Amino acid sequence: MTGFVHDWSAPALQARELYRFFRTGDDETPALRGVSLTVARGETVAVVGPSGSGKSTLLACLAGLDEPAGGSVEVAGERISHRPEAVRAKIRAHRIGVLLQSRNLLPHLDVRANIELARRAWRSSVFRPSPSELLEEVGLGRRGRATPAQLSGGELARAGLAVALANNPDVLLADEPTGELDGNTEQEVLDLLRDYARQGTGLLVVTHSAEVVAIADRVLTIQDGVVAA
Ligand SMILES: Nc1ncnc2c1ncn2[C@@H]1O[C@H](COP(=O)(O)OP(=O)(O)OP(=O)(O)O)[C@@H](O)[C@H]1O
């Protein structure tokens, strides 16, 4: 079982030679064909590529939501791939912030309760911010009692970010985190993301947005399931 011992020498995220195939009838689609990548602590890496190139599949494999057919994924030195689903879920809860397009908020809970749920997996009681502090940090100080349906697009993005960060993750995996936001709100959310990454969390963000690419330390291009050299 995982012990959640911090390996500070390990990168925030390391993927080696990831393969993932989808079978429909007689057809087999190779969604990932040997993807390797590393995200260092405090580093922001953007992943770009055309529609269907494998970005969502990659994020799902990195988050342990999907299993690669081959290769491995390690978060802060701990392997999450090829482990039982319950172990993957536990590692994800403790080590990974996930900000996918489907949103990470439970609709029947208010924002504060969503944060409290994610915050339970914080690995150390030292410096753990309160839900109110997390809400303040993302500029939602007054909206903690709102449910997701009562929030605007910008507020939803901030609430999703607060939930994704509430477990103090080693790595934050984000899919178009500013997808539906206007220019000002996008910049505010990006500033939050970048500030957080600079505190030591690795950030891997899949995007089509030039503004998101602009905050990245490195950009990886994926095409037909392969990261371009
Ligand atoms: N569940 C699935 N069943 C069959 N094929 C799939 C499945 N999920 C993805 N694929 C295929 O795998 C390939 C990669 O898809 P993926 O969703 O990872 O691309 P993407 O880069 O995220 O695309 P987009 O930018 O449009 O979201 C595509 O050819 C897609 O059709």
TrEMBL record:
Does the keyword Nucleotide-binding feature in the UniProt annotation?
yes
Coiled-coil positions are none
Question: Which Pfam family is one of this chain's hits?
Answer: ABC_tran
Task: Fetch the InterPro entries from UniProt.
Answer: AAA+_ATPase, ABC_transporter-like_ATP-bd, ABC_transporter-like_CS, ABC_transpr_LolD-like, MacB-like_ATP-bd, P-loop_NTPase
SUPFAM superfamilies the record matches? P-loop containing nucleoside triphosphate hydrolases (SSF52540)
Q: Which family does it belong to?
A: Belongs to the ABC transporter superfamily.
Protein's name according to its UniProt entry: ABC transporter ATP-binding protein
